[in-house]
Amino acid sequence: MTHTYNITGMSCDGCRSKVEKTLNSIDGIQATVTLDPPMATITMDKHIPTTQLKEALTAAGNYTIAMNNGVDSHGTTEKSMEKSCCSSNKQQEKPTVILPNNAKGKYYCPMHCEGEKVYDKPGSCPVCGMDLVQEAALTNSKTLYTCPMHPEVIKDGPGSCPICGMDLVPMEPSDSEENKVYNDLVRKMKIAVIFTVTVFLIAMSDMIPNNPLMKIMDASKWNWVQLILSLPVVFYACWMFFERAWKSIITWNLNMFTLIGIGTGVAFLFSLVGMFFPDIFPNEFKTHNGTVSLYFEATTVILTLVLLGQLLEARAHSRTSGAIKELLKLAPTEATLVSDGVDKVISIHDIKKGDLLRVKPGDKIPVDGKITDGESTIDESMITGEPIPVDKKIGDSISSGTINGNKSFVMIAEKVGSETLLSQIVQMVNTASRSKAPIQKLADKIAKYFVPIVVFVSVITFFVWAKFGPEPAMVYGFINAIAVLIIACPCALGLATPMSVMVGVGKGAQSGVLIKNAEALENMNKVNVLITDKTGTITEGKPSVEKVFAINNDENSLLQSIASLNQYSEHPLAQAVVNFAKAKGVSLIEVKDFEAISGKGVIGTVTNKKVALGNKKLMEQVNVSVSDELENKISAEQKLGKTVSYISVDGIAVGFVSITDAIKATSVEAIKELMRQGVEVIMLTGDNENTAKAVATQLNLSSFKASCLPEDKLKEIKRLQSEGKIVAMAGDGINDAPALAQADIGIAMGTGTDVAIESAKITLVKGDLQGIVKAKNLSHAVMKNIKQNLFFAFFYNVLGIPIAAGVLYPFVGVLLSPMIAALAMSFSSVSVIVNALRLRGLKL
Length: 844
What we know:
The chain is of the alpha+beta class. The protein contains 27 helices and 31 strands. It is 45% helix and 17% strand. The model is unreliable at 69-104 (pLDDT under 50).
């Protein structure tokens, strides 16, 4: 048996090799481990519990492993696990990326320094030092209820207070980790501002005529006041910057905080030494009063401005994940359970599969399921992006988070917790937001050498000014060297791509376009060929039988045979035949030796007769010849755009079934727009030449291929790729999965099969070609935004560092104060984030 697992904790190829070696050391296991994505594919002779794999990896290092459906086992018990592992391929195990229900928030670096690595606790990134961001997740804890008069009363569900009888009310949820970080920064900012402003006013008092402060105390005593007032700023409000700087140096993960720590640390230590040992400094460093020029005000102002930048970034970060938060708001907290004819309000976490739930007018749908009683209109705009409510009746599927109209109905719960569409969308958006786009490689490569180069430039700046600058040359050199350190901003480079990706992926989710990773988002912009299936992609995917033709005019008998045969097939066309038979009141009978032949049709034995139903290739395979008269009738149907299946009994072609599948109203418009954007659209279908041509004509397609087997679609995609084309493939069936995986961008219709969705890099919730236009427009806008951010970041540093070093001084006499440099550095990162936020207003 072969299973795939997610691995966390790997950061380099050495880690990958270590994990692979550790897993292969376990008896009965053959493992292959990849770093991107961080996964292990394990083949085992017999079931080995995930706990055993965990123990081995924990002993080897800080690595964790979990099956990639988000849980640590196939079932709830070892017995069920064993059964699942050893079962046949009748039910293919579906790999998903959903967090388990009891998973707590995960934390990741907004710059994705370690790829998709996440942490269990808040803190700072060990590489760049930035605050870790909490991944959005659906509410994991139950809503608790309390009495407004007696807060000590806490219950799991609604009811009345046992003390005073008042109705219990939901308790307010605690602050998210994101808000805690922001509120902590606000508190530190207030303290920093109070002390920094005071220090700044004392230092700048020399600019006031007849300095009033000197009448109170002399300069040396005011220096002591500045030192004391700067201590809360340096050692409390902004001490985290020095901790991060020190950590970055000892681990040699040089970053923005390295530069800030060195720059402000040198200024502060210089000031301390200048206070206590003034005699060791040359006269160039002393004022007209004989005291050494101190930089307590520069230190505190710079640190406070950097803190302001962190505060603004924290606020901006919360807005970049705004789309996910809007999705999270869709998740209801309660549901109405129908049990023995009685309605009971329960927590969303108590819903089990098979429960009957009543949905009242205006309520949010609690979980995924189907309507069993009643009908209504459902607002699905929050998931599909389409504003028009959809009519739903008995048997129709409904999704969690969508909003009921003005009628009440009863539904059965089919998917709960992390299995719901809403949960999967949230998790897919989270995963995609943490992934790296290929364009980020350039920024990563530059960032690797950025800090050492800046430190080198700073040192050179000091010596050049000390050697060639005007008096006091060493003071000029010292100030400009600090300015160079402070103004450089590797964070602007690091944030340029991930911020745009995060906002863009969230925007796509709101519009019904689910993107698996940043690479897919980038490559979608390059696509110049779209391969599309017909059934369920261009057409509605809801085929219906128009007629059954029998040579001997016994249509009912023939219908019974083919419907009985098709009852074992899950193909949409097969289901259409079965539904047609049931509507006609035709009973189904037993079939023996049933076999589905991929891309051709089905065969079996019905009432001791060998029956075959499928396309022309199937007739050739079972050696059935078709008369010219029957062939002409079939050809006439096909030219009308109908799908026609041949029927043979005991080796003789005896009739056909004509099936129609309407073209989606949006397909014509979507294909026209894609072609206008320079995308060549090619339809590859398993249907016959006549039917394919009729559909292609209606869509004005320049190219199509009929009678395509799954391997034919795969070969065509490979051929186009060998010509240098960037190919996207849109499909919805199991037979499309290989082609979806081979294409540069696989696009699955959300109305299709799980296998197709797992093979694709983009999923369209609504299953509409218009979604491809949205994905193309989104990709174009995000890539344009990323390039703007990268240009801004590069331009800022290329321009800012030389100005801070003083290159303009010989020409225009301009120097950059370290305090102005700190302000510019703080706002550079914020500007990148604000630019990325513009994507939230994008019209797709």
